[in-house]
Specification:
alpha/beta; Rossmann fold; six-stranded parallel sheet; three-stranded parallel sheet; 10 helices; binds ligand LMY7XDAE; hydrolase
Length: 299
């Protein structure tokens, strides 16, 4: 794949996520049959951002389909930090709830770090608790949970047969949610990792050396064909809205990678939509299953 004149294989995130969700559904059913209990996930949403509301709806639907119980708490934009902390603490104490997620971003008047750190370590299915992130960065330590989007990137690569050990990986972007944890996870998989960010000199030269590219810069079509080594595997995390008059919404989602161009040189590539996005929710269910299994079956 990715030879001269050929086209990259498209990594179908939607199909891989559907397979994983079916596997999770089976595991949940086994847990129920053996112990009479299922994992439970609490979703807390603050305010009414349409994108956040959509993601939360998708998460609840995915839970329903997998047989995972979901709890929902919605508070207005004007809620105080103390109110949100109280909700988190009540789910921390609820034995039927095995995972808690606070949908991000939070309104500006709230201290995101404080709220995420209040989630019980054992229920941190988003993997954003500072101790879970800290363990990700330490050799010889494993976090209880890994953040869903970067975990989805690694699982997509593995399920598509991309060998990671000893490979040069370049992560474009250094956000707490994607870029930083993705770099740490790839290092744990024995990649040699370089992080390219807004202050990097000559990013194109560095990205061109990569066997594996994780694009998470939040900049539409930033990665062009001449940034990509022939045969590289590209995972595009970008979800940029660009105006599109042919759409009912007036916009469409597009990635950080120029798919048309880059698929002519890459070996494997994810599309947007239909690549990493669906994996985020599949990994959330997977983390919730792991947490439920630990609490219900003790393993
Ligand atoms: N607490 C969290 N907040 C946020 C996270 C997160 O992992 N935890 N990630 C993102 C949003 N997100 C989940 O919350 C998310 C983003 C995208 C998708 C997805 O399936 N995208 C589809 C397109 C969907 C569409 O058309 O709108 C795709 O890319 O194919 C799922 C979940 C920020 N907040």
């Amino acid at each position: 794949m990715g030879g001269r004149g050929s086209k990259a294989a498209v990594i179908d995130g939607k199909a891989i996520a559907a397979d994983i969700r079916a596997e999770i559904k089976e595991e949940v059913a086994k847990l129920k049959a053996a112990h009479g209990r299922v994992p439970g996930l609490a979703v807390v949403i603050v305010g009414s951002r349409p994108d956040s509301a959509t993601y939360v709806r998708m998460k609840r639907k995915a839970c329903d389909e997998a047989g995972i119980r979901s709890f929902h708490e919605e508070v207005p934009e004007t809620a105080t930090e103390a109110e949100v902390l109280k909700i988190v603490q009540s789910f921390n104490a609820d034995p039927d709830c095995h995972g808690i997620l606070v949908q991000l971003p939070l309104p500006k008047h709230m201290n995101e770090e404080k709220i995420l750190a209040a989630i019980s370590l054992e229920k941190d299915v988003d993997g954003f608790h500072p101790l879970n992130i800290g363990k990700l960065s330490m050799k010889g330590h494993e976090p209880l949970f890994m953040p869903c989007t970067p975990k989805g990137c690694v699982v997509l690569l593995e399920r598509s047969g991309v060998e990671l050990r000893g490979k040069n990986a370049v992560v474009v972007g250094r956000s707490n949610i994607v870029g930083m944890p993705a770099a740490l996870m790839l290092m744990k998989k024995d990649c040699t990792v370089t992080v390219v960010h807004s202050r990097t000199k000559d990013p194109q030269r560095i990205v061109r050396e990569a066997d594996v590219i994780i694009a998470a810069a939040g900049s539409a079509h930033m990665i062009k064909k001449n940034w990509v080594k022939r045969g590289a595997a590209i995972i595009d995390v970008g979800t940029n809205s660009v105006p599109d008059a042919s759409k009912k919404t007036g916009y469409r989602l597009t990635g950080d990678v120029d798919f048309e161009e880059c698929s002519k040189v890459a070996g494997k590539i994810t599309p947007v939509p239909g690549g990493v996005g669906p994996m985020t929710i599949a990994m959330l269910l997977s983390n919730t299953l792991d947490s439920g299994r630990r609490a219900i079956a003790g393993k």
